[in-house]
Amino acid sequence: GACAGMDRGVLLPGDLCNVSIISDKDWICAGDSVIYTDNSFHNVTTRNWTFEGGNPSSASGEQVVVYYDEAGTYNVDLEVGDGNETISQTFQNEIKVWPFEGVPLEYNEDFESLSNLEEEWVVIDNGTNNNWELVNDIVGASGNSALALGNRFLDEDDVSEIYSQPIDLSNTNTDVAVTFKYAYARRNDSNNERLNFRVSYNCGQSWTLRGVLFNDFETVPFTNGDWEPTSPDDWVTVTIDNLTESALVSNFRFKFEFESDDGNNIYIDDINITGPVATGIDDFDISSDVTVF
Asked: What distance in Å separates the CA atoms of residue 121 and residue 104, rounded to the nearest whole number?
C-alpha cells in the first residue's frame, strides 16, 4: 500500500507501506556476487525474494548474497509481509552481469553504430554536473560520433570515469597495443588537468595506471566557450603499448579517468586494440620468450 503522509514528508509509524532494497553493486562480472539488503518499512516480519538468473534463485533473509554465472541484465523481486498483509515490487534491471570472457580482438570502437552507451560501457556517476556521454553530431576523428565529457562545466578536482566492456586478450601476446584519439581544449594556462588510462586484469575490480596525459595536452588553442571539435585536425592519436603479461586475460578492461581543473571539454574516438592472435592452441606460448607463427 501507499505510505500515508509520505507526500507530506510525514510517515505514520507502523504501517507496512514500502518495498525497498539496497544492493552493494550496480554491475558485476559473471561468477561474482551481489549483496542485497531489504530496506522495506514498517514492521517487516517475512520476506520472499526472487532472483532472476541468480544463485540462489529465491531466499527469505533480510540480507542475501547472490551469485550470477551468466551474462545478462536481471530483475529482482521482493515480497514483504508484516503478519497481516503483504506487498511486493519488481526491481527492473537491478543488476548487470558482464561476461567472464570478453569480446574478441580486433577491438574497434568508433561510436558510429552505438545507440546506447551503457550497452558496452560503464559510466561511473561520481555526483558531478556531467558524466561521460555519447555524442552524435560533432566532427569526430572519423564520422560524427564520439565519447564526450562536458568538462567546461565541471568543478576543480572532479573525477570522471568510464569503463570499457570486457575484452578477451587471452590469445594474444605483449605486442598487443591500444590506440585512441582525443580532442581537448584548455581555457587558459592555469588549467592542469589529467587524462589517466587505466587497465584491469580482473574485469574491473582493480586498476593499474598505464598512461597519463597531463597539463598542456590540449589539441587546439585556448578556448573559453563551450568547445567542441570542428576539424579532423583537432584530433591526436595516443598509443598504449606497455601492456604486460598480466593483461593477457579473458576479461581485460580499460578505463578513461579525467581529473578536472576548470578547463574545457574533452572527446575520445577511434579506440582500437590490436595484436597478434593465435588461431590454434599451439601457435604460441605466452610464458616463453619465443613466438612461433
From this structure: 16
* C-alpha closest to that of 182 among 156, 148, 144: 148
SS3 79: strand
153 phi and psi angles, rounded to 5 deg: -115, 20
**To the nearest whole number, what is the mean pLDDT of the chain?**
91
Three cell numbers at 123?
559510466
Cα radius of gyration rounded to whole Å, the chain: 23
* 265, pLDDT greater than 80: yes
| Host H or E run for residue 66 | strand 63-68
Distance CA 24, CA 30 (A): 16
Residues forming beta bridges with residue 109, ordered by sequence position: 271
Rounded to 5 degrees, what are φ and ψ at 199? -125, 155
pLDDT tens digit string along 181-232? 999 999 999 999 999 999 999 999 899 999 999 989 999 999 999 999 999 9
d(CA 78, CA 89): 6
Give 284's strand partners: 291
**Residue 33 identity:** S
CB distance 234 to 217 below 8 Å = no
Write the DSSP symbol of residue 219.
S
Q: How far apart are CA 12 and CA 124, in angstroms?
A: 36
The model's pTM? 0.83
